[in-house]
Amino acid sequence: MNAIDTSLPELSKLIEQRLALVRSLAESLESSSLALARNDAEAIARGAAHQAELCRQWSHLEPELRSQAGSRSPAEAGGSARLQAQWEALGVRIRHVTRVHWSLLRHLERSLAIMHRLVDSCAPTYRPNLGLLQTTVKSEFHPRTGE
After folding, report:
1. Among 22, 27, 47, 23, residue whose Cα is nearest residue 36
2. Among candidates 9, 7, 17, which has minimal Cα distance to 87?
3. In a domain, 130, yes or no
4. With 0-12 CB in 10 A as exposed, 13-18 as middle and 19+ as buried, what is 33?
5. Which domain, by its residues, includes 67?
6. 29-50 pLDDT per residue, tens
7. How large is the greatest C-alpha to C-alpha distance in the chain, in angstroms?
8. Distance between CA atoms of 61 and 55, rounded to whole angstroms?
9. Residue 88: how many CA atoms within 13 Å on its side-chain side?
């Protein structure tokens, strides 16, 4: 068995890991889009943390995958048609989810800008006039007689 024969199972394993990570990333982005639509800040934060971790794992996996793929012969570099189809489908899915995610974020940003302008316009109405907030303390003490 030569080096190429032993590297094929390892390369297939790395490709499957990459597909699993990207699939998880797509699912996480879809969940975050729902959280954005519901304005669920806690779920948005959890989703962002999860997505950052998946991206970190992916960035650690890619150099290893590239080194394994580089050691293969050109005839084997084409890879499996099934894996290529899955990779392309995931790419389409992530691009779509990312566009939806971006659209929701822009919508929330516009909503926040509107709320900010509304609050600023109402600020003089609700800002206390410090001259009116003078406190006076009246102390009346009436001692009881005979006790």
Report:
1. 47
2. 17
3. no
4. buried
5. 3-124
6. 889 888 888 888 899 899 999 9
7. 115
8. 10
9. 6
Question: Which run of H or of E encompasses 103?
Answer: helix 81-126
Residue 136 included in any domain? no
Residues 6+ away with beta carbon under 8 Å from 141: none
Tokens of 66: 């590239």
Phi-psi region of 32 (alpha: psi -120 to 50; beta: other; left: phi over 0): alpha
Structurally, the chain folds into a number of domains equal to 1
Amino acid at 92: V
Q: What share of the chain is helix, strand, coil (3-state, %, to 5)?
A: 80, 0, 20
- Taking a C-beta distance cutoff of 8 angstroms, is the pair 31, 43 a contact? yes
pLDDT digits (tens, 9 = 90+) for 55-84: 999 899 988 888 877 766 544 545 577 878
The reply to whether the predicted model has a pTM over 0.70 is no
Instruction: Please name the residues in contact with 47: beta carbons below 8 A apart, sequence gap of 6 or more.
Output: 28, 29, 31, 32, 35
Question: How large is the angle between the packed helices 3-38 and 81-126, nearest 10 degrees?
Answer: 30
For residue 57, give the nearest of 20, 12, 86 by alpha carbon. Answer: 20
